[in-house]
Write a structure and sequence with these properties.
The chain is mainly beta and 115 residues long. The protein is built from no helices and 11 strands. Strand 5 and strand 6 form a beta hairpin.
Length: 115
C-alpha cells in the first residue's frame, strides 16, 4: 500500500508564494507520473500540473508561468512552487501519484489567498 502525505498549504496574501510537498511512502512500488489537482468551492477537481518520472512537465494555462512542479525520485516526493498567487487560486490542493501498483491521492491541503 502506498500512502501520500501532503504539506505546505495555508493562508497567504495575493501576490505571495507557497510551496506544497507530497511524499509517497510504502514499499514495493515505483512512481510514474506525479500531478497536482485542485478543487475550488462549487467546482470540479481540475488537473493543472503534471510531471513524468523523467522530469517532463505540463501546466494548465491558468497557472503557467506562476507555478512550478518538480520531483525528487529518490524521495518519492513531488513539489509545487506557487508564486504570484491570486484569490482565484483558493482551493483544496491534491497530489496524485501514479505507480506500478496503482494511482493514489493525497489527503488534500487548503490554500487560501486573501485579496
Amino acid at each position: 500500500q502506498v500512502q501520500l502525505v501532503e504539506s505546505g498549504g495555508g493562508l497567504v496574501q495575493a501576490g505571495g508564494s507557497l510551496r506544497l510537498s507530497c511524499a509517497a511512502s510504502g514499499s514495493g512500488f515505483s512512481t510514474n507520473v506525479m500531478a497536482w489537482y485542485r478543487q475550488a468551492p462549487g467546482k470540479q477537481r481540475e488537473l493543472f500540473a503534471a510531471i513524468t518520472r523523467g522530469g517532463s512537465s505540463n501546466y494548465a494555462d491558468s497557472v503557467k508561468g506562476r507555478f512550478t512542479i518538480s520531483r525528487d525520485n529518490a524521495k518519492n516526493t513531488v513539489y509545487l512552487q506557487m508564486n504570484s498567487l491570486s484569490p482565484e487560486d483558493t482551493a483544496v490542493y491534491y497530489c496524485y501519484v501514479g505507480t506500478d501498483v496503482g494511482g493514489f491521492w493525497g489527503q488534500g491541503t487548503q490554500v487560501t489567498v486573501s485579496s
